[in-house]
Design goal:
It is a single chain. This protein is an alpha/beta fold. The chain folds into 2 domains: about 30 residues, no CATH class; about 230 residues, Alpha-Beta Complex (2-enoyl-CoA Hydratase, Chain A, domain 1). About 35% of the residues lie in helices and about 20% in strands. The protein is globular, with a radius of gyration of 22 Å. About 5% of the residues have low confidence. The chain binds zinc ion.
């Protein structure tokens, strides 16, 4: 006979899997809210509670920003070599590329091409942070540079959506770092020729990507709460032995400090780009040498 008598309730073992099937819910990375996936998709992958913007893939970005079926990709067949014969703890560089190609169905971390946005012709590029953290190796750098050069030759506005936690791709060493100078020099020539460059920064845009083409827009837009910078906040804190201010390196902080021109909610992004294209096509100031 139990000391406290017979329990007045029955314990029923419920498998978590039965009550909460996998793949139906997502936890918000910022506020912790559990969001029904269907609601998250309908809300363009933005948390309905705190407006945290989840990462989008490059194809999702194209669906979001580009007029339906107007995207014509160029340079899809460019492939990186393995100049350093790089071998990491999880395998060789070509093996990692193959793995990410299978995961994303992309050939590399950037998609570039021609497109229209609300009927306006543009050259459009987007990086995908699922593919080697959106890092810039020689293929990403070359694709971005060719996009800039096409915009320059054909006098078309250039739009690039950046998302890279990786910056320059370490597996290609110096060849990766060279892409920073190459893309920046090509943008200087575009600037001289006149067409506008709208750079869109998404969570996260860091290191070699941010320190080259992503920060050189005539207009720089950022999605809310995106982490944007060169070195991450944890490394900076460890180096300077000081606590960083709240929201440091987030879009809103950078807007306040002049690095970003506008922080735009994902729902308003396409409309804002279209308005900017309209404005910049008629009000572009003449550049001086
Ligand atoms: Zn949230």
């Amino acid at each position: 006979m139990p000391i406290f008598g017979k329990p007045k309730y029955t314990v029923v073992k419920v498998s978590r899997k039965k009550t909460m099937p996998e793949g139906l819910w997502t936890k918000c990375e910022d506020c912790g809210e559990i969001i029904y996936n269907k609601v998250l998709e309908e809300n363009l992958r933005v948390c309905p509670k705190c407006q945290y913007h989840f990462v989008l893939s490059a194809p999702q970005r194209i669906t979001l920003l580009i007029d339906s079926s107007s995207f014509e990709e160029f340079d899809r067949d460019l492939r990186s070599l393995d100049p350093l014969q790089f071998k990491g703890p999880k395998g060789s560089y070509p093996e990692k590329v193959k793995e990410d190609q299978a995961l994303t169905t992309l050939s590399e971390a950037a998609l570039c091409g021609r497109a229209t946005i609300e009927g306006k012709k543009v050259i459009f590029g987007v990086t995908d942070s699922r593919f080697m953290m959106g890092s810039m190796g020689s293929v990403v750098g070359e694709k971005i540079t060719r996009s800039i050069e096409t915009a320059t030759e054909e006098h078309l506005p250039l739009i690039i959506v950046s998302g890279s936690g990786g910056g320059a791709r370490m597996q290609e060493g110096m060849l990766s770092l060279m892409q920073m100078a190459k893309t920046s020099a090509a943008l200087a020539r575009l600037h001289k020729a006149g067409p506008p460059f709208i750079s869109i920064l998404t969570n996260p845009t860091m290191a070699g990507v941010m320190a080259s083409f992503a920060s050189l827009g005539d207009v720089i837009l950022a999605e809310p709460k995106a982490l944007i910078g060169f070195t991450g906040p944890r490394v900076i804190e460890q180096t300077i032995h000081q606590r960083l201010p709240h929201g440091f390196q987030r879009s809103e902080f950078l807007l306040e400090h002049g690095l970003v021109d506008m922080v735009i909610h994902r729902k308003a992004l396409k409309g804002t780009i279209a308005k900017l294209l309209e404005y910049l096509s008629t009000n572009r100031p003449k550049t001086e040498d």
